[in-house]
Amino acid sequence: xxxxxxxxxxxxxxxxxxxxxxxxxxxxxxxxxxxxxxxxxxxxxxxxxxxxxxxxxxxxxxxxxxxxxxxxxxxxxxxxxxxxxxxxxxxxxxxxxxxxxxxxxxxxxxxxxxxxxxxxxxxxxxxxxxxxxxxxxxxxxxxxxxxxxxxxxxxxx
Length: 157
What we know:
The protein is of the alpha+beta class. It is built from two helices and ten strands. The strands form two sheets. Strands 3, 4, 5, 6, 7, 8, 9 and 10 form an eight-stranded mixed β-sheet that branches. A hairpin with a 7-residue loop joins strand 1 and strand 2. It starts with a strand and ends with a strand.
């Protein structure tokens, strides 16, 4: 189901409709998007087969799971590479994670509030966009991406 309007009826009388605007409905005729899940140090990490822009991916993760993934150390990043390799559905070249650049500066942070104790930027990343993703092709690299791109993404619970 997609759209921005939904009609609610207070009774069986179809003439008394209340119309709401800007209601976000996630779902496609009862089918969940494909996903791959691993458990990592107390967290469930989910690679979602749906493709969304960065802000919609953030809202999806916060509505359905907990948040977009923050990577805590290089070892966890290697396990994400393993998760990507197990995907049984086609992936975009990069995947959204909770990586964001400060609007007033050049510092990057995790949306979950986790400290950024390491980074894995590839050499071609020039930081012109405030949104960042991880490569699904080149292991263990991060790159800034246009926030409007529709990419697969990784959530955690």
